[in-house]
Amino acid sequence: MPRVLVDLLSYTGTKGGMETYTRELYRALGEMDDAYEYIGYVSTEGATCDLTWFPGRIIESGISGENRFAWAWGELTQVARAARREDVDLVHAPATLGPRKTTMPTVVTMHDMLYWSHPEYMSTPLYTTPVKWMEKAAARNAARVITISPESADEIVKYLGVDRGDLDVIPLAGSTPDGVDRSLAGSEGPMILAMGNRRPHKNWSALLHAVSLLPRDLRPRVVITGGRGDDPLAPLADELDVRDWVDLRGWVDDAEVRHLYSTASALAIPSYAEGFSLPALEAMAAGIPVLLSDIRVHRFVGGDAAEYFAPDDHAALAASMRAVVEDAELRQRLTDAGPPRAAEFTWHRTAVETRASFDRALAGSVS
């Protein structure tokens, strides 16, 4: 039975999509046969989270996943040491970065190459060079690299020099919270929902500009969740005089997500770049109409089940927002198209293909 050390140093309960991926992937792996044994090497913050989804033993590293220096030191050196102590056959690093050198094969899941492809959108420019170095080191050490979209695969080849034969493109899946009741859609008035952190590539300011272009009596409420601390969108909301229509929220719990998914008229994501788009999949699975910026990865995820707009075209976004609120036929078309599209992406498929990647890494180590 192969033993896998899973690098959970970045798992702190605050990292959004990458943590959803790790959690849902290992939940699905645990539902497969017991041909593999999994050991989680977790951060101090992660050790306080609910880890019942993990299908194996947990080792507390004593390393903070929120302290960037402690975390980087842990990724580069301590994951490999833990792997040797546990005498594992394979290491999986599911959050883009991983150990610099291991004596056993390592599989790294790299979600995006934004530090390389869009450095101008990184909110922490001082970390750009160190992160790029760590990504190169992790890729160089990896027996295989998993990524989540064809666009990310192309960029990993371009920027990190990974051989395409060592890459596995394995899409994510959507997980809609239980209890969403779409019969309540619009019951609290027209509302456009947006969910995600405030990193610049998310381009949330486009939503504020778009709503400011609509007549005041036709503006939907815009709810943007995922902020932390002082929201950088607040000054722009004041400048554009749209505070009465824009609700800036922090991280929301499952109950609040259920309520927002139940009452939203549509979900909008105006990003300049993404590795994938879990919120879009989750919304489509719930039957929520989806408005997406017209970038390659959004077309990969949304297909014909979404409406698209250029990320810098605020007027086009405003027109899409107004249309999805006022045009019942458009809303119904998107509502009907969403669930079948989302059903093409499942966590079981992600788990099966990930296990196949593990198998290939192990086979390569003994060839």
Could you walk me through the main structural features you see in this protein, from its secondary elements to its overall organization?
- By secondary structure, this protein is α/β, with parallel strands linked by helices.
- It has two domains: 3-173 and 346-365, Rossmann fold (3-Layer(aba) Sandwich); 182-342, Glycogen Phosphorylase B (Rossmann fold).
- The chain has 13 helices and 13 strands.
- The strands form two sheets. The chain has a seven-stranded parallel beta sheet, with helices on both faces. A six-stranded parallel beta sheet has the order 10-9-8-11-12-13, sandwiched between helices.
Short summary:
The chain has 367 residues and is an alpha/beta fold. The chain has 13 helices and 13 strands. Strand 8, helix 6 and strand 9 (221-227) form a beta-alpha-beta unit.
Strand percent estimate: 15-25%
What portion of residues is helical? 40-55%
Q: Main sheet: which strands, in order across?
A: 3-2-1-4-5-6-7
Give me the number of helical elements.
Answer: 13
CATH architecture of the largest domain: 3-Layer(aba) Sandwich
* Mean pLDDT over all positions: 94
Q: What global shape is seen?
A: globular
Q: Remind me, CATH topology of the largest domain? A: Rossmann fold
Provide the CATH top-level class of the largest domain.
Alpha Beta
What is the succession of H and E elements?
EHEEHEEHHEHEEHEHEHEHEHEHHH
Query: In this structure, how is the largest beta sheet organized?
Result: 7 strands, parallel
